[in-house]
Amino acid sequence: MDIIEPVKRLAEKATGIGFPSREEALACVRNVRPSRMKFRDDGYIPNNPKFPLLHYRKVLRFGRKHDPAAVLEKVFNVNGWGEAWRNGIYDYVHYHSMIHEVLGIARGSATLQLGGNKGKTVKVGAGDVIVVPAGVGHECLKASVSFLVVGAYPPAGTYNECRGSFQERNQAIKAIGRVAVPEQHPLYGSHHPLW
Asked: Looking at the domain assignment, is residue 102 inside a domain?
């Protein structure tokens, strides 16, 4: 997957085949109410004291005309969430202290641990989208062979990866409190508040 997806993405952009227009991508987004999950600081993973993790189940309907990963990239990009990547989710708990993240499931299914070791185990599948606030721990426990995620970030913030070490904790907690609410929702744009 590490070699195939980047080549596939370049071919889609160069040829336009499998790459949806703005209208085609946005037409795949359904109006879905998310599951809201709030996690406490467990002494290892700080989580986010203000914002809940949002899990939108089956929020995207993928047709056969376009590659699901390209649809997710287009939807996120149209709504101002860029720097998209295609891969899986790390199999160890981690969080980002200086930026929020959106994860869209393009293919396959997985079992994720959200909120750290004392958090919640959740099953996800193609068409699901998870908005992970800064500080919220996440990891993949088990994934199907075909599991593919598209991740992206809002324009404000800086990517970093924290693993819950004691040395990074105090700085991470301060940074989490400074991360602003994005101006646009990664699925619904400015028409819908994120939190």
From this structure: yes
